[in-house]
Amino acid sequence: MPQLPQTLGALKRSPFATPERASRAVKDEIRKNLITRLSEGGPLFAGVLGYEDTVMPQIVNALLSRHNFILLGLRGQAKSRILRALTTLLDDVTPIVAGSEINDSPFHPISKYARERLAEAGDDTPVAWVGRDQRFIEKLATPDVTVADLIGDLDPIKAARGGHLLSDELTIHYGMLPRANRGIFALNELPDLAGKVQVGLFNIMQEGDVQIKGYPVRLQLDVLLCFTANPEDYTARGKIITPLKDRIGSEIMTHYPEEVELGMTITAQEAWTDRKETGGRAVRIPPLLAELVERVAFEARTDKRIDRRSGVSQRMPISVLENVVSNAERRSIGLKEKDIVPRLADVYAALPAITGKIELEYEGELVGGAAIAHELIRRAADATLKAHAPHAATDEIVMWFDGGAALQVTDDAPAKTLRSAFDTVPGLMALVVEHDLAPDRDDPLVAGACELVLEALVARRKISRNEKGQYGRAREEGRRRRTGEEPFGGLTA
User: Fold this and answer.
1) Cβ 292 vs Cβ 344: under 8 Å
2) End position of a domain, from candidates 218, 235, 253
3) Is residue 181 part of a domain?
4) pLDDT grade, residue 493 (50/70/90)?
5) Burial classification of residue 223, based on how many CB atoms lie within 10 Å of its CB (0-12 exposed, 13-18 middle, 19 or more buried)
6) What is the CATH number of the domain that holds 112?
């Protein structure tokens, strides 16, 4: 990169002083760079998956329209990531008046400080340069956020040191919003902002003036405002004042992955599973297990005992997969295995990553988070088996357990030992091989597939599994449901 101009005079003689660039607002800058990126093709924001046909077109429309916008969605839907990715649409560097707290343009200053510097020094006024990341300010809205935090306040110390009256603009300590001038200001969880702070926010958005301690200050800020909110807070609780809502140009809804495969791709992208980079062993995650982990989240999002208004974050399968790999890693270290191959028992070891990510309704509180998590794992195993072997014959397996046989499966047993144990279950290994659930010569993957089949049968109440990992005949209640028998003492036709 050539040497950047360091004074206003040098800046005027540089390519940065073209009429188009000298007077361009930040929304026009983003619009121009967006058009260039759309012309080149490819993803709009790297790492944001699943929104190509839904959310992204709406964001593009909002930016092309030069709108301030709000992203409405439940937790874990990449809202913050999208906002942070907006910086990639800013120029690499931008000139400001050196020493300016609010990124004053050397060509169109808005603060008294910058105007006085330019009047005194003229073309010799020092120019500084800010990168795109310095032009992004993000704030989480909480009830204790004040007008002073966002807009600013009078600074008596600054007044005393400079010999200024308190009514002088030079005594202002600027808040986060003015400091985002000529950049992007992102405010997360907008409904949590107090009403009087929202008033100051929309006033500076529209009219460009604020009152600080009773003194009116005119600030024609050049900023792209972006917000996030939970749809329940935004629409039902009435926490956003109407004038502010009216000044937000576009309202964009986000969503969770609609396909299991897409969720698996996101989880694989975000989860930390490469343990070799920190001196660990190589990790092989069986595709069936990765799918099961993802389906746990999909099952949770449809469970009536889990609060849908809070949502089930995409962070759940990410955290679960990381815990699953860690439990398998612990086992591989103890058994001195060459690589790490997780299996279903490791998912049960990852219960803390499930229970910590769900908010329960009253009915769910009665059952308990751990019990619901166990059920989610079993339902996910059943859904995974149905997806890959919808017509699998399991009668022979069930009959073996109904005859009184039992099988103990622990998460610290070697894969070869487990395979030998699963070989004793009639029809189990044949089912795995017939439906290509795992390569026949790969003991860890075969053991994991066998465990998946048994867990699916537990979900169907055809067999049972206790807390110690022992599979056996179905409990009497489950057997009655499966066979249609009347309970003891009931009437029969």
Assistant:
1) yes
2) 253
3) yes
4) very low
5) buried
6) 3.40.50.300
| Residue 233, pLDDT above cutoff 80 | no
Dihedrals phi, psi of 32, to nearest 5 degrees: -65, -45
Which domain covers residue 354, as residue numbers?
Answer: 260-483
pLDDT at 485 over 80: no
Instruction: Count, in order, helices (H) and strands (E) of the chain.
Output: 24, 16
At 346-364, the pLDDT tens digits run: 999 999 999 999 999 989 9
User: Residue 441: pLDDT band by 50, 70, 90 thresholds?
Assistant: confident
212 and 306 both lie in a single domain: no
269 and 232 share a domain?
no
Residues 266, 248 within the same domain:
no
Determine what percent of the chain is predicted with pLDDT higher than 90: 63
SS (H, E, C) 101-144: CCCCCCCCCCCHHHHHHHHHHHHHCEEEEEEHHHHEEEEECCCC
Q: Which range among 112-126, 130-144, 228-242 shows the weakest confidence by mean pLDDT?
A: 228-242
73, 218: one domain: yes
Residues 243 and 359 in one domain: no
Q: Of 285, 414, 417, 264, which Cα lies nearest the Cα of 342? A: 285
Q: Which of 151, 259, 138, 132 is nearest to 190 (CA)?
A: 138
Domain shared by 249 and 265, yes or no: no
**Confidence band for 488, pLDDT divided at 50, 70 and 90:** very low
The pTM score is 0.86
Q: For the chain, how many structural domains are there in total?
A: 2
| Shared domain check, 181 and 297 | no
How far is residue 216's CA from residue 205's CA, in Å, rounded to a whole number? 15
Token pair, residue 480, equals: 């009655």
Given 253, 284, 318, the domain boundary residue is 253
The residue ranges of DSSP E strands in 295-451, in sequence order, are: 339-340, 407-408
Average pLDDT of span 402-431: 91
- Those residues whose C-beta lies under 8 Å from the C-beta of residue 391, and which sit 6 or more positions away, are none
